[in-house]
Amino acid sequence: MDDCIFCKIIAGDIPSYTVYEDDVVKAFLDISQGTPGHTLVIPKKHIPDLFAYDEALASAVFARIPKIARAIKESDPSIKGMNVLNNNGAVAYQSVFHSHFHLIPRYTEQDDFQMIFKDNSANYTPADYEKIQQSIINHLGV
Fold first, then answer.
1. Does 120 map to a domain?
2. Which of the two ends of the chain, N or C, has the fewest CB atoms closer than 10 A to its terminal CB?
3. Contact 37/76 with Cβ under 8 angstroms?
Protein backbone atom coordinates (compact mmCIF):
# COMPACT_ATOMS: atom_id res chain seq x y z
CA MET A 1 0.00 0.00 0.00
CA ASP A 2 1.57 3.27 -1.14
CA ASP A 3 0.69 5.47 1.84
CA CYS A 4 1.32 2.93 4.62
CA ILE A 5 4.34 3.76 6.79
CA PHE A 6 4.87 0.10 7.70
CA CYS A 7 4.76 -0.97 4.05
CA LYS A 8 7.41 1.69 3.41
CA ILE A 9 9.53 0.27 6.25
CA ILE A 10 9.17 -3.24 4.78
CA ALA A 11 10.21 -1.91 1.34
CA GLY A 12 13.25 -0.18 2.85
CA ASP A 13 12.00 3.28 1.90
CA ILE A 14 12.00 4.29 5.57
CA PRO A 15 14.83 3.08 7.82
CA SER A 16 14.15 0.96 10.88
CA TYR A 17 16.08 -0.76 13.63
CA THR A 18 15.22 -4.28 12.51
CA VAL A 19 15.71 -7.06 15.06
CA TYR A 20 14.18 -9.93 13.05
CA GLU A 21 12.98 -10.47 9.51
CA ASP A 22 11.92 -13.39 7.38
CA ASP A 23 9.50 -13.94 4.51
CA VAL A 24 6.42 -13.48 6.75
CA VAL A 25 7.21 -10.79 9.34
CA LYS A 26 9.47 -7.91 10.14
CA ALA A 27 10.23 -6.96 13.74
CA PHE A 28 11.79 -3.61 14.54
CA LEU A 29 12.18 -1.23 17.45
CA ASP A 30 9.21 1.06 18.00
CA ILE A 31 10.46 4.61 17.59
CA SER A 32 8.58 5.62 20.78
CA GLN A 33 10.34 3.03 23.01
CA GLY A 34 7.61 2.81 25.67
CA THR A 35 10.27 0.89 27.58
CA PRO A 36 13.74 -0.04 26.30
CA GLY A 37 13.41 -2.85 23.76
CA HIS A 38 9.81 -2.00 22.75
CA THR A 39 9.48 -3.88 19.46
CA LEU A 40 6.81 -4.03 16.76
CA VAL A 41 6.10 -7.27 14.88
CA ILE A 42 4.28 -6.74 11.58
CA PRO A 43 3.23 -9.09 8.79
CA LYS A 44 4.93 -8.28 5.51
CA LYS A 45 1.59 -8.62 3.78
CA HIS A 46 -0.44 -5.44 4.24
CA ILE A 47 -3.38 -6.28 6.41
CA PRO A 48 -5.25 -3.57 8.28
CA ASP A 49 -6.08 -5.30 11.56
CA LEU A 50 -6.68 -8.58 13.36
CA PHE A 51 -10.17 -8.90 11.89
CA ALA A 52 -8.71 -9.27 8.37
CA TYR A 53 -6.40 -12.22 9.13
CA ASP A 54 -7.09 -15.64 7.70
CA GLU A 55 -6.04 -18.71 9.68
CA ALA A 56 -2.86 -19.33 7.68
CA LEU A 57 -1.49 -15.80 8.10
CA ALA A 58 -2.49 -15.66 11.76
CA SER A 59 -0.72 -18.96 12.38
CA ALA A 60 2.41 -17.82 10.57
CA VAL A 61 2.62 -14.43 12.30
CA PHE A 62 1.74 -15.61 15.79
CA ALA A 63 4.18 -18.53 15.54
CA ARG A 64 7.06 -16.05 15.36
CA ILE A 65 6.11 -13.84 18.30
CA PRO A 66 7.41 -16.11 21.13
CA LYS A 67 10.84 -16.43 19.45
CA ILE A 68 11.15 -12.65 19.13
CA ALA A 69 9.82 -12.10 22.66
CA ARG A 70 12.37 -14.57 24.09
CA ALA A 71 15.20 -12.80 22.25
CA ILE A 72 14.12 -9.44 23.67
CA LYS A 73 13.88 -10.86 27.19
CA GLU A 74 17.25 -12.59 26.93
CA SER A 75 18.87 -9.40 25.60
CA ASP A 76 18.62 -7.73 29.01
CA PRO A 77 18.66 -9.66 32.30
CA SER A 78 16.72 -6.88 34.03
CA ILE A 79 13.61 -7.59 31.91
CA LYS A 80 11.12 -9.28 34.25
CA GLY A 81 8.08 -9.60 31.98
CA MET A 82 6.48 -8.38 28.77
CA ASN A 83 3.20 -6.96 27.54
CA VAL A 84 2.06 -8.08 24.09
CA LEU A 85 -0.49 -5.63 22.71
CA ASN A 86 -2.50 -5.45 19.52
CA ASN A 87 -4.87 -2.54 18.90
CA ASN A 88 -7.62 -2.90 16.31
CA GLY A 89 -9.50 0.15 15.10
CA ALA A 90 -9.14 3.82 15.98
CA VAL A 91 -11.39 3.46 19.03
CA ALA A 92 -8.91 0.85 20.34
CA TYR A 93 -5.97 3.26 19.84
CA GLN A 94 -4.74 1.79 16.55
CA SER A 95 -2.82 4.62 14.88
CA VAL A 96 -1.18 2.78 11.97
CA PHE A 97 -3.65 0.72 9.98
CA HIS A 98 -1.24 -2.08 9.13
CA SER A 99 -1.63 -4.84 11.70
CA HIS A 100 1.13 -4.84 14.31
CA PHE A 101 1.93 -6.32 17.67
CA HIS A 102 3.74 -4.39 20.39
CA LEU A 103 6.21 -6.38 22.50
CA ILE A 104 6.86 -4.13 25.48
CA PRO A 105 9.49 -5.33 27.96
CA ARG A 106 8.69 -4.74 31.62
CA TYR A 107 11.48 -4.04 34.07
CA THR A 108 9.65 -2.99 37.23
CA GLU A 109 6.13 -2.16 38.35
CA GLN A 110 7.15 1.49 38.04
CA ASP A 111 7.92 1.35 34.29
CA ASP A 112 6.68 4.33 32.32
CA PHE A 113 3.92 2.14 30.84
CA GLN A 114 0.55 1.30 32.32
CA MET A 115 -2.45 -0.83 31.49
CA ILE A 116 -5.45 0.04 33.59
CA PHE A 117 -8.63 -1.99 33.35
CA LYS A 118 -11.73 -0.88 35.20
CA ASP A 119 -13.61 -3.69 36.95
CA ASN A 120 -17.17 -3.43 35.63
CA SER A 121 -18.32 -6.78 37.02
CA ALA A 122 -20.80 -5.13 39.40
CA ASN A 123 -22.71 -3.91 36.34
CA TYR A 124 -23.37 -7.43 34.98
CA THR A 125 -25.76 -10.14 36.03
CA PRO A 126 -25.37 -13.81 35.10
CA ALA A 127 -28.04 -13.21 32.42
CA ASP A 128 -25.94 -10.38 30.95
CA TYR A 129 -22.88 -12.63 30.75
CA GLU A 130 -24.93 -15.44 29.18
CA LYS A 131 -26.39 -13.09 26.56
CA ILE A 132 -22.90 -11.86 25.57
CA GLN A 133 -21.56 -15.43 25.63
CA GLN A 134 -24.31 -16.75 23.37
CA SER A 135 -23.97 -13.88 20.90
CA ILE A 136 -20.25 -14.58 20.49
CA ILE A 137 -20.82 -18.34 20.15
CA ASN A 138 -23.49 -17.70 17.50
CA HIS A 139 -20.98 -15.73 15.41
CA LEU A 140 -18.12 -18.26 15.52
CA GLY A 141 -19.43 -20.00 12.45
CA VAL A 142 -18.56 -23.50 13.66
1. no
2. C
3. yes
Give the closest residue to 45 by CA, choosing from 22, 18, 17, 16.
22
> In this structure, how many other beta carbons lie within 10 angstroms of the beta carbon of residue 104?
21
CA dihedral over 141, 85, 22, 14, signed as positive or negative: positive
Q: Per-residue pLDDT tens for 45-91?
A: 999 999 999 999 999 999 999 999 999 999 999 999 999 999 999 99
Judged against a pLDDT cut of 90, whether residue 114 lies above it is answered with no
Q: Which amino acid is at 17?
A: Y
Quote the pLDDT of residue 118: 86
Is 100 catalytic? The answer is yes
- Does residue 79 lie within any of the structural domains? yes
> What total of structural domains would you count in the chain?
1
Spatial contact of 26 and 42, defined as CB atoms under 8 Å apart: yes
